[in-house]
Predict the structure.
Amino acid sequence: MSEFVDNLTWKSQWVLRRNAILGSPAFQRWASRTPFIRLIARRRAATQFDMIAGFVYTQILTAFVEAELIPYLQSGLRTVDAIVQFAGLEEDATVRLLKAGQSLKICESPQPGMWTLGEAGAPLSANEGAMAMIRHHHLLYTDLARPLALLGQGRQTETALSAYWTYASKAESDAGAEGYSALMAATQPMVSEQILDAYDFAQHRRMLDIGGGSGAFSTAVAASACQLKIGIFDLPGVIAEAEKRLGRDSISADFTLHPGSFKETPIPQGYDLITLVRILHDHDDAVCSALLSKVYAALPDGGRLLVVEPMADTPTAQPMGEAYFGMYLWAMGSGRPRSSQETSAMLRNAGFTTIKPVKTALPIITRALVAIK
């Protein structure tokens, strides 16, 4: 360290000094006993404990979801006896779970012996996409049980998540398409609502959704832009799931399904809008660069590419980017979280010169960039 001391910036010097102070037991004792300062110290201590115990909190939430207690408690006040019978747990275990959930505001007891959802649980009852992700997280928990082992092994090593998301593997496959297509469809409404409110799809004639899965995003767009003719381009096994879904949908007449792999198959042409919804961050840089170049070549002059996905530099939501998606995608064996600047740079390298952000109401759910050829 000493050989670099002379090269430290003022920010580095300040950070090192700050850490030395905050890490001092003497300072911590002083802060905990000093009026006003101790309020800050208590908040920081609570934040530190939440970081230490966070995995327990997520498992408590998982228990509520897997026991179907979120919809059960959403419908009204329930007695402990009724919850015991519904959850299939012993009474002491049920009470332990309810009290744990109450501390996290998943549930609450507004009167003695009666329980319902709390401030954190009530919004979940209306968010099936979040519930689907919570059910799915058992795979990520398995991979993160030994985080250093996960980080130390090569990304070619199979994990629970890489076995699930087969399309993102180095040996691309549509095996298991029904399972992951269902999860993507369940979580897509959260994204669709954000981008439909932020972008005018009616200005286009034809839209191609690359990696469009079973068509959840495309059908949402079609409902808001009735004149738009839409194509979905995805692996053959996924397109088979799209055929099933669209066969049940009355607005599917203007859909064209294109089976293929964007890694190997040319991008279908004739579309003035191409969308990549939660695609780029699932893939490594080389794959993304090749895809963006293909998209640029497929678009007509003036055509647009709309990139929709969570981004690593989202204000107030940095842990979502680098912590959650950073570790999730590492376990998946493909992709990485990227900032809007990194994605913009990749778009410019592919040939796009005009790149604009599309503001969404809840950037933590998704952000968007539009690139014009």
Summary: The chain has 17 helices and ten strands.
